[in-house]
Design goal:
About 40% of the residues lie in helices and about 10% in strands. By secondary structure, the chain is mainly alpha-helical. It is elongated.
Length: about 90
C-alpha cells in the first residue's frame, strides 16, 4: 500500500487528529507514499497495517489539538460530497 495525501487526511479525520506541521505531512508522504528500494535493488512496499501502526505512533501527540490559525500546520480538509452516510 502507498499512502496518499487523501488517505492520510481520511485517517486523520477518522482518528480526530488535529492539525499537524506541514513538514511532518510532507515527510510522512515521502516515506510511506513511495516504494522503498534497498541497496540490493529489492523493492519493499509497506502493508496497510505497517502504515497504520507507524502513523498511530507519529500522530498520537496531535490527537488532542484543536484547529489552529498557525499557517505552519496542515489542517485536514472537510470531505466533499454526500455526508448523509455518516
Amino acid at each position: 500500500m502507498l499512502l496518499t495525501r487523501r488517505e492520510l487526511h481520511k485517517i486523520m479525520r477518522d482518528w480526530r487528529i488535529g492539525p499537524i506541521p506541514k513538514e511532518l505531512e510532507k515527510e510522512l508522504l515521502e516515506v510511506y507514499g513511495h516504494e522503498m528500494v534497498t541497496e540490493e535493488g529489492l523493492t519493499i512496499e509497506y502493508s496497510e497495517q505497517d502504515i497504520v501502526e507507524q502513523l498511530r505512533e507519529v500522530l498520537r501527540p496531535f490527537s488532542q489539538l484543536v484547529h489552529s490559525e498557525d499557517p505552519s500546520l496542515s489542517t485536514v480538509p472537510e470531505e466533499k460530497g454526500d455526508r448523509s452516510e455518516l
